[in-house]
């Protein structure tokens, strides 16, 4: 992987937090603008928690999308961990 790209474990951790956040926010009765503002703020908190940035995560997603097997394994692990935590 190129420099500045999150490793697989980092991607898994960030994606888990983002998916949990997205699911929780969808259940809130907020307008689209308020939901978007809340999402932007909470994504920043997630990126800070994991020591990354939106740009680094976005770049990492683009790189991993060129490796379907790796991306599939990442998403499989995300689903497994989320389901385990229910």
Describe this protein's structure.
The protein is mostly helical and 86 residues long. The protein has one domain (8-84). Helix content is 76%, strand content 0%. Helix 1 runs antiparallel to helix 2 and helix 1 crosses helix 4 (68-84). The protein is globular. The model has no long low-confidence stretch (mean pLDDT 90).
Alpha carbon gyration radius: 14 Å
Low-confidence stretches: none
Q: Please, what is the average pLDDT? A: 90
Helix percent band: over 70%
> Largest beta sheet, briefly?
none
Structural class: mainly alpha
Put simply, the count of helices is: 4
The helix/strand series, from N terminus to C terminus, equals HHHH
What is the total tally of β strands?
0
Distance between the termini: 32 Å
Specify the overall morphology. globular
Total domains:
1
Beta-strand content estimate: under 5%
């Amino acid at each position: 992987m190129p420099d500045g790209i999150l490793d697989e474990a980092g991607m898994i951790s960030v994606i888990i937090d983002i998916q949990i956040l997205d699911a929780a926010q969808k259940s809130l009765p907020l307008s689209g603008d308020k939901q978007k503002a809340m999402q932007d703020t909470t994504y920043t908190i997630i990126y800070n928690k994991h020591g990354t940035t939106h740009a680094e995560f976005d770049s990492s997603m683009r790189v991993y999308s060129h490796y379907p097997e790796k991306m599939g394994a990442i998403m499989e692990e995300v689903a497994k961990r989320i389901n385990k935590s229910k």
